[in-house]
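Hello forum,

I keep getting stuck at the same step: I have a sequence, I want structure tokens, and every attempt I make locally crashes halfway through. Rather than fight my setup again tonight, could one of you with a working pipeline run this one for me? It's a single chain of 194 residues.
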Amino acid sequence: MQLLLTLLIAHLFADFPLQTNALAAWKEKHWVGVLLHVFVHMAVTALLLNNSQRYWPLVLLLGVAHFGIDLLKLFYPGKKGIGYFLFDQMLHCGTILLAASVAQRVWNPAPVGIFLEGWLPLILFSASIPAFMVLSWVWINSLNQDYITRVYVLSWSKRQLLFLEQRIGLTIIGIVFLQVATYYWSGIIAFGLQ
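Reply #2:
Ran it on my machine without issues. Output:
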């Protein structure tokens, strides 16, 4: 379970706050944008896995799967609504679930993340906030444009939600990594004082 939650957190960080609007637009037009996005995913996954160099096939497998899923989007251009967004995320989560399950059977010891077990639910919840903001933005953009224009909150959200999502997401990532660094740094200091 620890590995699955760690991989989901890595996906949420890389797919939402670490995917800029420019990168998302590039992904929609060219496979090189997809490749760059996948490299971000692989780097985040490797950073969140303890002893990741030992588990590089897992990181690579997840990268290849993510590349395949996102590459398919190039062949289906056009308006992508909420159903498309949810289906895409279900494919990614299904791949992560399968990869975590296989990794538990293949490696001894099985891969684990850098986060303490007790922190995982809070980190996963926090990492989900930007994803729900993007989901809201996608939903708003699927509404009738005249309706959006008449309702100030929707009009404002259409213009500002992605900007806020990235700032909030990057703040969450910063807080999480500050907590991790503080925890490990205090352990190093305590070890040195013994």
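The chain has one domain: 2-193. If your local run keeps crashing, start a new thread with the error log.
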